[in-house]
Amino acid sequence: MPSPADRSPPILLRVAVLFLLLSTASAWKKDEFRNCDQSPFCKRARGRKPHSIPSLSAADVSLSDGAVSARLLPSQPLRQNTAGDDPEADRDPSRILLLRLSVYQGGVLRLQIDEDPSAPRRRFQVPDVLLPDLDDHRLWLPRLSSPAAGSSSSFYLADGFEAVLIHDPFEIQVRRKGSAEPVLSLNSLGLFDFEQLMVKKNDGEDWEERFRGHTDTRPHGPQSISFDVSFHGADFVYGIPEHASSSLALRPTSGPDVEHSEPYRLFNLDVFEYLADSPFGLYGSIPFMLSHGARSSSGFFWLNAAEMQIDVLAPGWDDSASPAKGRIDTLWMSEAGVVDAFFFVGPDPKDVLRQYIGITGTPAMPQEFAVAYHQCRWNYRDEEDVAAVDAAFDEHDIPYDVLWLDIEHTDGKRYFTWDRVLFPNPKEMQGKLAAKGRHMVTIVDPHIKRDDSFYIYKEASEKGYYVKDAMGKDFDGWCWPGSSSYPDVLNPEIREWWAEKFSFQSYVGSTPSLYIWNDMNEPSVFNGPEITMPRDAIHYGDVEHREVHNAYGYYFHMATSNGLLKRGNGMDRPFVLSRAFFAGSQRYGTVWTGDNSANWDQLRASVPMILTLGLTGLSFSGADVGGFFGNPEPELLVRWYQLGAYYPFFRAHAHQDTKRREPWLFGEHNTALIREAVHVRYSLLPYYYTLFREASVSGIPVMRPLWLEFPADKETYNTGEAFMVGPSLLVQGIYEKRQKSVSVYLPMGQSWYNMRNGAAYTGGISHKLEVSEDSIPSFQKAGTIVPRKDRFRRSSTQMVNDPYTLVIALNGSLAAEGELYVDDGKSYDFEQGAYIHRRFIFADCKLTSIDVRPAKIGGKFSSDCVIERIILLGLPSGAKKAVIEPGNREADVELGPLTLRGGSSLVAVTVRKPNVRIADDWTLRIL
Amino acid sequence: MGACLRISLTISCLLLIWISASASIPSRESLGIAPQDLSYYKSDVIKCKDGSKKFTKEQLNDEFCDCPDGTDEPGTSACPQGKFYCPNVGHIPLTTFSSRVNDGICDCCDGSDEYNGNVSCPNTCWEAGKVAREKLQKKIATFQNGVTIRKQEVEKAKQAFAKDEAELSKLRSEEKILKELVQKLKEQKERIEKAEEEERKKREEEERRLKEAERKANESKNAPEESSHDITDQAPEKLSELHNQDAMEDHHDSAVEDKNDYTTGTEISDNQVVGKVANDHDDTIAKSGHEADGRSDGSSFSHVEKQHVVEAQDNAVSKANTDYPGTEEELSSHVAEQGQVSDSTEGLSREELGRLVASRWTRENAAEGNDEVNMAKEGLEHDEDIREENHDGYISDSDEDHKFEDDDLEDDQDAEFGEDHEEPTDLTVSGSSSWLDKIQQTVNNVLQAFNFFRRPVNISEAATVRKEYDDFSSELSKIQSRISRLNEKLKYDFGKDREFYSFYDRCFESKQNKYTYKVCPFKKASQVEGHSSTQLGHWDKFDESYRVMLFSNGDRCWNGPDRSLKVRLRCGLKNELVDIDEPSRCEYVAILSTPALCLEEKIKELQQKLEDMNTGQPSAHDEL
After folding, report:
1. Annotated region Disordered: where (chain B) (predicted)?
2. Which of B69, B298, B560 has the CB atom closest to A657's CB atom?
3. Cβ neighbours of residue B463 under 8 Å, at least 6 residues apart?
């Protein structure tokens, strides 16, 4: 008898389809994303050996307009069939490339290489990323020096540094003056390759590329660029987010002892359930790499928004017999664009950051509420739900500042609208939160539902404001609302139009306490190749999507942020969270690490990820506390709150399929632990706000790798488990279930005080510490002063008038320093000097408060806030009282606890109610 | 009338004046302290309540936190763990967190939490109190009426329970008698059959003997003819046997075909197998991913290699899949297209692809007909159908019994969902004894009528016995099923006073948008949309001392938990499902108002509260 299976193929076909669908419905879809071998430009470039392709030489090197210019020509006439592995190598030898080298203040060298302007089509240069006034900071090069042989040209770069252009084959070097050994170099390995644009000559030529049923027409042929960059004297390289990794330093991706690995991919993608450790690309891209070694730090940034692949090469990768020591070679490959690269000379790591920030801009100063705790979930369903969650925070005395609404709040995923059943009175709802000093954030994504009855869609389609497909029609992709189009935010006019949509008149139901979240702006296109837009889609100025892809989310973020700025007449600092990002996103708001998962590995990976974002300018970033996908066990959730309380951006978020996980849902004990974690953040808000100010001036991130603060301490170079919050606090996460003890390395040079019990630890060694469930290890560095506010409120808004506590951790010479920055927390008045900025210096048993505002600045910000408590750690016993000047007032001194929260014992000398105003100059002497 | 009005107005004016006066300036020593606590703060040196420290009277409410538990700062915000008491005269006193003191938000209706002048909080206690008092009065009235209804319900439940118990015991005794009768009939039947058997054997023996004699007589006549005769005789028999076999096989085949056509059933089982393979496969990926997450030695991405392992497993899975007979072609065509079986999305339309990818985040149905939830649901319904069919089959058997006319099919189906099951009264209550007598009489007649010694056996009498046996044994099983149903019911916990007894046979419905929610206590809860029904849960138990009903193990959610429902009960005059909600995916909560929750004890408590509010006498009331 035949089996039933043989007789009913349709059923089994359906079974097979079901099988396919089931397997696609979970976990990371590796096959859906192109790997290097599937990207011809990457495969070709990666397969090359050093000096294996025809080299280019620099000719006609000269100074013009204060910069160096040259032409790049083939070193020798091309032979037929030179590079057998390179089918597209036979290009017109008469076509030359133009090279330009310019120097900017502070140790920045810029290299630009592009085709001759007479080329058939201009290649894309990413606009609006570099600071508009960058050219004002360009140095006018007075002269070029060439050795007698004329084989190179060198010129001034910064004090102690010079740049060298070696002519044949051409190579760029950044050197310490008088040293032959470079700090940075480009094309030392002869891997520079630049595919010039071509015009189709005959129909037989097939430039199309296919991937998983999608066809990329590639109308302009292959146009990739690749080259090598070497970091000399480097122990490690860092940066080039966004990748999930348990390692802060970039692991080599090619070379001996390296298992087969993909290069680091920079291609903004919406990745479902991403892995905790992978070089594959995620939501954002910043092609900026930093190196650090015992001798110095340096950096390299390539302004290019096309897909990029970057290899970090392990010593000996090129099979050379004697691999270079103390040098890290890297290979940079991009699908399109031009060479517009920046070399940062350092030499200190913070110098490198400042140099990068100097060209891409400082992070925006956030509003104070944004620095506090955010509560999010996909989705708080309706107004009742919002009210209940809000009330429960109060019932449990857990502060929070912002309640978030995900996509379900809209009318059918038409952003700027409200579901009329679930959210009938959005203004009233926001008003109720605002009455408690709280804010709301709603989501606005770039996919616009193709529905003529939706005013945004209608308007944009009438104006022709959408990205076009390869055929020239409005691009139609699938996302949350179904069939959608995407505004072409590369166009400044469209950005202006988009910004207008946030006005209170236009965004019906919005109020001044409402801020915005931009999600899915990679852009995410569910039915597109690699879940994004086809590369041959067309943007403003006939730019192909492939050329601008990594910056799409950046322009969208920019437009939204400008919308909020306009809405508040330029008086109200915008708050916009974006998932996609690019170099410069720090000017427009906050980012987070996207859709992570509720597991311990992702908790661990969150720290290197956020540290990397901070190193590349994005100081204000965080990871979803609790993990977006899946249900965290209570212990994991508590540990995540304890760690997340130190993230610059502190938000809990959850997928709609997960169980509710608001802080009070796991029993009283866990509620207390989470409350304590949130309280830690609120008490440190004055310190965090001060750090945000520092970041907004210098670009030095709030959350810092240890080596940024201790560049000479080799032990710290690859620490990704512990981090610094500003210059004063060190925090170690707990990343394992039921962990009993943890080994914490405390950097050398200073001793450290446990932030909970005041116990002192020696620096320069690893301490094995017992782990308690009520906190993660955290330490204050000796020699620092940290301002706190120890009174808790419903939200940060009510803390404005509350008094301060200063925690002074004394170093070996009984001295310490710290800062406090205060302004109105929301407006731009601080730009006119309306702020308080104090430096507290403790020395010789005397604490002095000094105004550090520039003397001639106007503006005034007043505050009646006082310091209610000063805690001194490491002061020898015997203090009797404190005397305050001016006024010759006395204050009591007693032994007090380090924190007012439960279980703390008396450990430190405490000055009781000195009640000195933070706005005033004063001294306080301990007698 | 006018005078009264004037007097009451005067009184309330006076009251208002008094209230605002009393709320205006609290002294530092008593600020934020509950009246019953005032004595604790009398002495000059006061202990922190947690025993950790002492503080002086000067340190009480001096805006500096000395006691970690907040003892010394009941009236300020200085201690993070402190509590603040507002008297709220005219309303209910409130103990709140000290984090609310002078935070610019009016929390106490008397405004006592905001005294630093940054914000002015009007005293709203009298008005708010009035509203609260009215609400409380209403609540008390509801409770009072509810208590009466509840009493009636309890009384009814008592009777119903007694009735059910009486019925049960009656049924049990009937069962006993019937059992005996049936046993007797069975014995009789067996005896008859034995007699019949003996008779048959005798007859056969007789015939054999006759035949033998005939054969012997014939044998001597024409022996050679016999064999050929045999052959011709046997041939048609064989043919027909063959024919029968064919017919059977045909029948068998068509049954198989039927089975195939019955897609739901077949498909589910197949899909389950494949689904399991897919799940296992996912597990492996997850596991490998997990392993890969661990830090690799040195500086390499060792997980990449592991991904290759996963890929190999992919292929293994696809290979295993091709082992399914008949699937090789379809699958290999997919394999050929992309080289990887796990994920080919080619061939999907653009919209399908979009939906498919979106479904990863939403876990919703991506393509028609491939939704596991639907499948599972269909499967479940299918199972139920089968169960119901069996059930029906059983009922229809007993339907043949004309004595159970009332017990029609529909009624019994409903019984499964809790509709009251009316038993024929003549059977169970009033006429049962005479009915039983009659039966006994009948049986006895039958038994006696049969004459064992008569040969041959009287065929009509034997048939009567057989029929009576069949009838009575089906009657017996009917009674037994009724007994087991009653037993099933009576085993439940119906509350302290069996106040939920009437819930057993009831369902409560609530319509919300497109869904109708149906909650049947002690049975199940479901969400109905048109013709499709989703199980929210099967009855689990009462919780929180009969204030909550739990339903669990409902239909499984796509990639999520089994659905469950928690029904919170509260006092109300009618049994009414007033609210249903899904705060977490597939975890439902509902509110059922019912007189069963209107407890007499609670009235006193509420009245006391009202009294406190009316007199303005502060009593300890902790809202925290």
Report:
1. 191-432
2. B560
3. none
Shortest alpha-carbon distance between residue B439 and chain A (Å): 53
B56-80 confidence digits (pLDDT tens)? 999 999 999 999 899 999 999 999 9
Please state the pTM of the whole predicted model. 0.80
What would the pLDDT profile of B510-564 be if each residue is shown by its tens digit?
988 888 999 999 999 999 988 889 999 999 999 998 999 999 999 988 766 789 9
Helix (H), strand (E) at residue A283: none
Strand B54-56 and strand A906-917: the pairing is unpaired
CA–CA gap between residue A482 and residue A340 (Å, rounded): 38
Separation CA A297–CA A351 (nearest Å): 8
Partners of A622 in the β-ladder: A592
Q: How far apart are CA A532 and CA B467, in angstroms?
A: 77
Q: Do B326 and A9 touch (CB under 8 A)?
A: yes
For residue B119, pLDDT beyond 80 = yes
Whether domain B506-599 has CATH 3.20.20.80: the reply is no
Instruction: Give the position of tokens 């004309």.
Output: B402
Sorted by sequence, the CB contacts under 8 Å of residue B435 that are 6+ apart come out as B426, B427
Residue whose pair of structure tokens reads 């498909």 in the numeric block: B267
Residue A212's closest CA among B35, B622, B503, B339? Answer: B339
Q: Which of A172, A212, A206, A215 has its CA nearest to residue A190? A: A172
Whether A519 is a known active-site residue: answer: yes
- DSSP calls for B245-257: HHHHHHHHHHHHH
Q: What residues 115-144 of chain B have any CB closer than 8 A to a CB of chain A?
A: 118
Do you find a cis peptide bond into A446, omega within 30 degrees of 0?
Answer: no
- Give the residue among B403, B460, B473 at the shortest CA–CA distance from B432: B403
> In the predicted model, is pLDDT for residue B417 greater than 70?
no
* All residues at 6 or more sequence positions from B207 whose CB lies less than 8 Å from its CB, including other chains: none
b or e along B191-218 (b: 16 or more beta carbons within 10 Å of the residue's beta carbon)? Answer: ebeebeeeeeeeeeeeeeeeeeeeeeee
Q: What is the torsional sign of CA B65, B69, B71, B76?
A: positive
B178 token code pair: 């019937």
Closest alpha carbon to A31 in B348, B281, B339 = B339
Q: How far is CA B78 from CA A790, B66, B82, B98, in A?
A: 8, 9, 8, 8
Q: Write out the two tokens for B215.
A: 């054969």
Give domain limits for chain A.
Answer: 36-360, 368-702, 754-760+771-926
Q: Which of A289, A290, A329 is nearest to A312 (CA)?
A: A329
Distance CA B511, CA B530 (A): 12
Q: Answer whether A36-360 and A754-760+771-926 agree in fold.
A: yes
B341 CB near a chain A CB, below 8 Å?
A: yes
Superfamily of domain A368-702: Glycosidases (3.20.20.80)
CATH architecture of A754-760+771-926: Sandwich (2.60)
CB A787 within 8 A of CB A870: no
CATH topology of domain A36-360: Immunoglobulin-like (2.60.40)
Catalytic residue among A270, A311, A335, A519: A519
| Angle CA B123–B126–B128, to nearest 5 | 90
For the question of an ipTM over 0.85, the answer is yes
| Joined tokens for residue A29 | 């879809």
Surface of B (251-310) touching A: CB under 8 A: 253, 256-257, 259-260, 263, 266-267, 270-271, 274-275, 277-279, 281-282, 285-286, 289-290, 292-296, 298-305, 307-308, 310
- Per-domain residue ranges for chain B? 26-122, 129-208+439-491, 506-599
Instruction: Tell me how close the Cα of B567 comes to any Cα of chain A, in angstroms.
Output: 18
